[in-house]
Design brief:
Helices cover 57% and strands 0% of the residues. α6 crosses α7. The longest helix is centred in the last third of the chain and has 16 residues. The protein is globular, with a radius of gyration of 14 Å.
Length: 127
Amino acid sequence: MPEQRDALTELVKANVGAGRRMSTRDFAAVAVDPETGWSPGKSLVGKIIAGQGYTVTPSLVSAIAEGLELPREIVAAAAHLQTIGYTAAELTAGPPAVLIRTLGADADVGPKARAVAERWGADADQA
């Protein structure tokens, strides 16, 4: 059974909104899909932060990546985790595991995800 969580929402919420590094207005201004020029409006960003329903699109993923200054693959992994989930095996390498680290090993991510984050932390220390 795939593990799921609102990872894309969590990623945006951790960086955008009251008391965070960017306001919704500031984020909406810099979150621009470099390929299409599309940008989420302030109200859509507010819906994401509030955890309300929204549609995940390729342009939204690209715009969030630009706005948060993260690799698109990491934001895409968050979207994937949120919409369809990952199996435990898929969380052992690549962008999904980096995403788990980005969301924070100390967060309530469950024992499997926490183990992945710790393993990636150890790998990063050895590199």
